[in-house]
Amino acid sequence: MALPYELLIGLRYTRAKKHNHFISFISLISMAGIALGVAALIVVLSVMNGFQTELRSRILAVVSHVQITGASGEISGWQAVATEASTQPEVLATAPYVQAQGMLAYGQAVRGAMVRGILPDQEDKVADFRPHIKSGQLDALQPDRFNIVLGSELARALGVFVGDRVTLIAPQGVVTPAGVVPRLKTFTVAGIFEVGMFEYDSGLALIRLEDAQLLYRLDDRVSGVRLKLDDLFKAPAVARALAGTLNTDAYISDWTRSHANFFRAVQIEKNMMFIILSLIIAVAAFNIVSTLVMAVTDKQADIAILRTLGASPGSIMAVFIVQGALIGFIGLGLGIAGGVALALNVDVVVPFIERMLGTQFLSKEVYYISNLPSELQWSDVTTITGVAFVLALVATIYPSWRAARVNPAAALRYE
User: Fold this and answer.
1) Any idea where the domains of the chain sit in the sequence?
2) Average of pLDDT values for 146-160?
3) Which residues partner with 150 through β-bridges?
């Protein structure tokens, strides 16, 4: 099947002749600009996706997907609540917990902390504390042993190590003739964890569930039940479903709600980076305007001859749209190839650059995430491809329209 002559002429115009190398140079600059903008946008969004995933995994190492908390702060018969929540097909595991404020003291050092009572075997099913244990072990939290596992920053602030004994002061006091006396209990440091989130490393302490119930006078009651789902992004839907089915008076929240401001800020930053870097593609795409305007000026005689041979204004427009679209398509292809390749190998390229420059971009002493994580999402690549190609096509409209309005008589007057 023969190709349309508009396509053949447009493809031929993209090849340089001896007297118009400058036009081809501008075309190459346009291609390079589009390629650079597309590649930069793919890499930056992939790195931001990687940071978002890394931070989400660190948060979810401590925070469960869905959390059921008693309306009064306590739940009786948590086993029934856990069984009822497990009827949801998305729920993989459940675990009870006790959560309360406390004060930790060691020598002259005193620090406030959020004390969480857990059952280690069940907690492993809803959280990922165990991989983040830096010293000691989580299994040391046994009944009546009164052991405690501290966040790394909290342990550093108190100046304690595994084996040291700290005093836990509960806010619920004991009424005596001398007044209200705080409840005190000595715990042995059995482990130190570091999840990489300062909020938890500096303010969270783990103890055995039974010890927490005894210390805070809860008897067999707990603060709530934590759930793990097969898909963390289904957490809002599962929370809504549980709100309508649970027979217990409880407050149900999910990880997206407990850290809504944080994840919203990350998403806004990602959207703004997309807009800002899209401007690079827009500038490169509109360089195509300059290329086609010069091409139209250079090809006025050819246009006039085509018109006298019967070519319609629409056909003339199509010729230059093909030329501009080809420039954009080549630049887009190079940008996608380079951007995808770099996004998939950030963990190799960045260390190589750091070794070449003798520096580290994210110092371990300053940042918890000392490497650049990258997660390529093909939905982002598709969106970038669509935006870049549309910008390239829009840039061809005005020069092509001007070419279609060339007067054959005026163009051939001095030929």
Assistant:
1) 5-57+262-412, 65-255
2) 92
3) 192, 205
